[in-house]
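In response to the reviewer comment on reproducibility (Comment 2.3), we provide here a single inverse folding case reported in full, input and output, so that an independent group could reproduce the run without further information from us. The structure tokens appear first.
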């Protein structure tokens, strides 16, 4: 596989625990993301129609406005705020195996034997809604078996993100630990870092364009700023780990993504689907 990051970019990631990599997500990958997110929005809105919460699906509105508008019209129903199960599709599989992401993972993890970690999410972030606002956390608080295993997270927006519309903030240099106990944030219901620790964090805002990727480690503290725009802020985040140290949490819905040593280890789409049979749609 070709490398995508320069030695300086790799050195920055290892020194700071994160990297903003501009223009590494090609148009065909952005288009797959758009397909997966639009389908999820359609399904969610159709559900509100079926329940009689709305009577006009407002097909005239674009992806950034439609969910926000109809969510208000429907009386602000709760929905799965970080969908995963309901993204499972051929296109999601193609995203996870996309050569651009595997090249990034290879450069960041320092190995060509790479597995998809089974935790990935879409983030339909509503305007000014605290319950979709991700507080300071470390990803390994959600999968503690990665405390000592390098799992790299790759976060990709499909529209520009700024401090106004919920870009992410990272706390540089704290990726060497410690991994804090998970704390249930009562305001958002998200697992995160307790106030006495998070109040001392110095966040760096990472403003990005579609096509950029933000990469960070399983220990790097990060959060999303509030979405003060009137549009939904959409993103997808995926994760990779070295196959030799693949974690139980990662392997559950994950799989070998690239293996020069044993190319047959990469499963077919249908094999991946089997891993989801026990998980009902509408759940995480
Ligand atoms: O998109 C967000 O709001 C949060 C993303 C995040 O925390 C993650 O990908 O780990």
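Designed residues, in position order:
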């Amino acid at each position: 596989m070709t490398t995508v990051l320069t030695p300086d970019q790799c050195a920055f990631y290892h020194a700071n625990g994160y990297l903003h990599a501009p223009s590494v997500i090609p148009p065909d990958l952005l288009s797959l993301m758009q397909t997966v997110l639009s389908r999820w929005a359609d399904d969610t809105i159709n559900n509100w129609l079926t329940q009689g919460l709305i009577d006009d699906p407002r097909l005239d509105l674009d992806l950034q406005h439609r969910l926000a508008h109809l969510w208000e019209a429907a009386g602000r129903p709760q929905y799965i705020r970080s969908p995963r199960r309901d993204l499972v599709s051929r296109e999601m599989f193609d995203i996870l195996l996309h050569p651009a992401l595997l090249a990034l993972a290879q450069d960041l993890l320092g190995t060509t034997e790479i597995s998809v970690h089974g935790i990935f999410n879409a983030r339909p972030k509503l305007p000014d809604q605290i319950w979709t606002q991700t507080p300071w956390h470390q990803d390994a608080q959600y999968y503690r078996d990665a405390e000592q295993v390098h799992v790299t997270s790759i976060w990709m927006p499909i529209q520009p993100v700024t401090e106004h519309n919920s870009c992410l903030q990272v706390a540089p240099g704290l990726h060497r630990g410690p991994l804090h106990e998970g704390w249930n944030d009562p305001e958002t219901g998200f697992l995160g870092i307790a106030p006495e620790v998070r109040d001392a964090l110095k966040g760096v805002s990472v403003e990005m364009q579609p096509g950029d990727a933000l990469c960070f480690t399983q220990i790097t503290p990060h959060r999303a700023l509030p979405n003060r725009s009137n549009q939904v802020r959409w993103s997808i985040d995926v994760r990779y780990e070295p196959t030799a140290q693949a974690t139980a949490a990662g392997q559950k819905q994950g799989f070998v993504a690239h293996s020069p040593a044993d190319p047959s280890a990469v499963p077919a789409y249908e094999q991946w689907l089997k891993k989801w049979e026990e998980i009902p749609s509408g759940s995480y």
